Every structure is written in structure tokens, then in C-alpha cells.
Amino acid sequence: MECSRMELGEPDASGRRRPVAIKDSAFILPLETVIVAIGQSPNPLIKATTPDLATQPWGGIVADDETMATNLPGVFAGGDAVTGAATVILAMGAGKKAAQAIDAYLEGKPYDPQHPACVFSLNRPEM
Ligand SMILES: Cc1cc2nc3c(=O)[nH]c(=O)nc-3n(C[C@H](O)[C@H](O)[C@H](O)COP(=O)(O)OP(=O)(O)OC[C@H]3O[C@@H](n4cnc5c(N)ncnc54)[C@H](O)[C@@H]3O)c2cc1C
Question: How far does the centroid of ligand 1 lie from the alpha carbon of residue 3, in Å?
């Protein structure tokens, strides 16, 4: 496997420094097997195990923006499996929306984002 040594480049417009390859730093690692252990897309098994679930061409699950409901009744999805590789805060937001919608679904009530059936709050004054 050919690798390159990296260093942090100049800050971009957002102020974030991205890794850039160091010139002429390439080297070869003699390997028999490489296991890619970084998750950047949904498990491809989803399509095989649940063929009726609506998915994007790249494998992401299709879910409603507000309720995170999928096309299958009682099945909700959120986070990277819906958006593709994103951020923790987006995944947490999706989880919160889905929890509210699931609660309404289980109660047999229509989902009202203005008056969610279940409200979460952090009660940690020390934070
Ligand atoms: C290297 C790296 C660095 C990152 N750095 C940041 C950062 O600095 N800030 C930031 O906000 N975000 C960062 N992210 C993105 C962030 O980690 C994700 O956006 C976030 O974790 C998505 O949360 P999730 O719950 O959707 O998915 P995940 O956190 O991936 O959780 C999915 C879970 O489902 C489990 N799972 C998968 N298949 C099955 C199955 N069949 N049955 C049961 N369980 C299953 C997995 O094991 C996993 O625990 C980074 C991601 C990577 C890969």
C-alpha cells in the first residue's frame, strides 16, 4: 500500500487547517490485507436485508426531514445513515426529532413539531 506523510496546511476561509501531503514523502507498506475501519457510508447490508426500505442511490436511508420517518410504517432513521457523513450535532438533532415522532406514533397521535408529545431537557446546573 502506498502511503504519504501528511502535515497541516494553511487555514481555509473557515479558519480550519486541512491535512496536505508532504512532497516526496510517499512510501510503500508491504501488506497482504487492508481492512478499512472508518465508517463514511451506511452498511450496504441495509438494502439487502430490507429491500422495501427507500434508500438513496448511494445507500443512505430516505427519511422525512421533520419526523425522520421512513417509507416503512414504524421505521425511523437519522444521523449519518440518512445524511451521509456529517456531524454529531446533526445526528443528535435527528435522534431528538425521531424520538418525538416515535412517541407520537406509539401513542397513535399525529405528530405536531410545535407541541411534541415528549420534551427532552438537560438538567445539569454544573455544566
Ligand atoms: C474519523 C472521524 C472523525 C469525526 N470527527 C467528528 C468531529 O470532530 N465532530 C463531529 O461532530 N463529527 C465528527 N465525525 C462524524 C460523527 O462521528 C458522525 O457524524 C456521528 O457519529 C454520526 O452518528 P450516528 O449515530 O448517525 O452514527 P454512528 O455514530 O456511526 O452510530 C451508528 C451505530 O450503529 C451501529 N451499527 C451499524 N450497523 C448496525 C447493525 N446492523 N446492527 C446494530 N448496530 C449497528 C454502529 O456500530 C454504530 O455504533 C467524525 C467521524 C469520523 C469517522
Answer: 25
The pTM (predicted TM-score) of the whole model is 0.73
What pLDDT score does 35 carry? 83
Residue with cell 452498511: 43
Q: How far is the CA of 93 from the centre of ligand 1 (A)?
A: 14
Distance set, CA 104 to CA 12, 82, 112 (Å):
44, 21, 8
Q: Judging by beta carbons within 10 Å of its beta carbon (0-12, 13-18, 19+), is residue 36 exposed, middle or buried? A: exposed
What's the confidence (pLDDT) of residue 120? 44
Q: So what's the pLDDT on residue 7?
A: 96
Residue nearest to atom 7 of ligand 1 (CA): 87
- Kindly state the cell numbers that stand for 78: 437519522
> Residue 42 and residue 85: Cα distance in Å, rounded?
9
Q: What is d(CA 110, CA 116) in angstroms, rounded to the nearest whole number? A: 10
Q: What are the pocket residues of ligand 1 if the criterion is a CB atom closer than 6 Å to any ligand atom? A: 38-39, 43, 79-81, 86-89, 91
